Amino acid sequence: MRRARVLHNDIELDITIDEHDQLRTENGELLNEADISWLCPVKESGTIFALGLNYADHASELAFAPPTEPLVFLKGANTLTGHKQPAYRPDNIEFMHYECELVAVIGKTGKNIKREDALEYIAGYTVCNDFAIRDYLENYYRPNLRVKSRDSLCPIGPWMVDASDLPDTSSLKLTTHVNGELTQEGTTADMIFDLPFLIEHLSATMTLQPGDMIATGTPKGLKDMQPGDTVVCAIEGVGALETRIVSEQDFYGDTY
Description:
It is built from 4 helices and 19 strands. By secondary structure, it is mainly beta. The protein has 2 domains: 39 residues, SH3 type barrels, CATH 2.30.30; 214 residues, Fumarylacetoacetate hydrolase, domain 2 (Alpha-Beta Complex), CATH 3.90.850.
């Protein structure tokens, strides 16, 4: 089952997407996509864990040695936005790029979870585009606040696919297209630390809760984003997440 959250007539709704790509409310009403705005599909989002350099080819293109243990950082809820929503390029920066990532959504509480039991704690999967501002990345606090914690720069969606519908995520194709051009391609088989390992690792330190999300890193392939660009991050069996880039002034309007 594909599950999403949308805004319809200023009301937040939980919907499902059927095999014919029809949008249905909980009472069976069909919705027209033109009449809704997509929201982050995880209603009660909790801690957002993100992995740095979790694909060896991405580490290599940045001239880093592959990490020997997970490089985990946390993201704020302010970064989240939905499918087909705008994300902004900050003023006065040199390079902002996308990061297409598989996201696992935790479905039940767990502490000290064993690797062999880890997949039982996943409710479903979705796609995120964890944008990064490279200007501020290479420093002691990597990645710092300005790199990964700006409003709107972690679109997630369009929906969440139930874990039971995607029992094997070990070799899923990931692609990113910018304005229709293929700019990134990889497979989850190239993760350095897979999801069972990450769940065991994270739950050894803190209790995982329903709604927590684990963004598992991105393969190689970087391109600078500019206002006017449309970027589509797609993962086999999960979905395709579309984001349009706007200027900082256009994003914030009167509060700019």
